[in-house]
Amino acid sequence: NAGVMQNPRHLVRRRGQEARLRCSPMKGHSHVYWYRQLPEEGLKFMVYLQKENIIDESGMPKERFSAEFPKEGPSILRIQQVVRGDSAAYFCASSRGHLPYYEQYFGPGTRLTVT
Amino acid sequence: AQTVTQSQPEMSVQEAETVTLSCTYDTSESNYYLFWYKQPPSRQMILVIRQEAYKQQNATENRFSVNFQKAAKSFSLKISDSQLGDTAMYFCAFMAGGSQGNLIFGKGTKLSVKP
């Protein structure tokens, strides 16, 4: 059973471009979570999604950031008009059911660099 | 708002010895969960151990155990018989009972196991 897959692993964007980060959860997992890790910091929760629904987006910046988890295909975290402050590692995690009753498995992360 | 504090940015330990990593948290919730995650150089987050706040017994997973002091809001991780593969960043995390997916992480402790 493959783990949580994220691609790309590294992404370089110029200021003002769009960044699309993809996350494929583990097989059988319908819950997806996105976190951001700034240098020398812990992970910060961004959004929690189930198939076709956003459950909790309390950690998402109000502008430029959006997330989706369609019925088919990976979850996408989209950052429009990137700025230098968006440079970070973005981690996706998935679980079979609601936390904390089910374990959350993390992907390897996407490192976004904005130049 | 809940906060998680890890007061030791870096620690080192000799192989085969025991080390304790500190974590304190602040919350007004009565129902919550605590976690320790390991982030090796590969950067993939791995769950080490978890503790339910309503359980008085300290959680144990092989060489890893916690000292959960609910009144003091302290949740330290003890690693016995340290191995070179334990070298990693260790993050303490908190989740309120009703939050489903919103994990709050500390800033981490960098642990180096020396041969």
In brief, what are we looking at here?
The complex is a heterodimer of chains A (115) and B (115). Chain A has no helices and eleven strands.
Walkthrough of the structure:
The complex is a heterodimer of chains A (115) and B (115). Chain A is an all-beta fold. In chain A, 0% of the residues lie in helices and 49% in strands. Chain A contains no helices and eleven strands. In chain A, strands 2, 4, 5, 6, 9, 10 and 11 form a seven-stranded mixed beta sheet that branches. Chain A has a four-stranded antiparallel beta sheet with strand order 1-3-8-7, with no helix packed on it. In chain A, strand 5 (43-50) and strand 6 form a beta hairpin. Chain A is globular and about 40 Å long. In chain B, strands 2, 5, 6, 10, 11 and 12 form a six-stranded mixed beta sheet that branches. Chain B has a four-stranded antiparallel beta sheet with strand order 3-9-8-7, with no helix packed on it. In chain B, a hairpin with a 4-residue loop joins strand 8 (64-69) and strand 9 (74-79). Chain B is globular and about 40 Å long. Chain B starts with a strand and ends with a strand. Classes of the chains: A mainly beta (115), B mainly beta (115). At the A-B interface, strand 4, strand 5 and strand 9 of A face strand 6, strand 10 and strand 11 of B.
* Helicity range of chain A: under 10%
Largest interface: A-B, 26 and 23 residues
Uncertain runs of chain A: none
- Count of helix runs of chain B: 0
Net shape of chain B: globular
Low-confidence stretches of chain B: none
Largest sheet report of chain B: 6 strands, mixed
Strand content of chain A is over 45%
Helix-strand category of chain A: mainly beta
| Overall geometric form of chain A | globular
Radius of gyration of chain A: 13 Å
Q: Ends of chain B: how far apart? A: 41 Å
The multimeric state of the shown protein is: heterodimer
How much of the sequence lies in strands of chain B comes to: over 45%
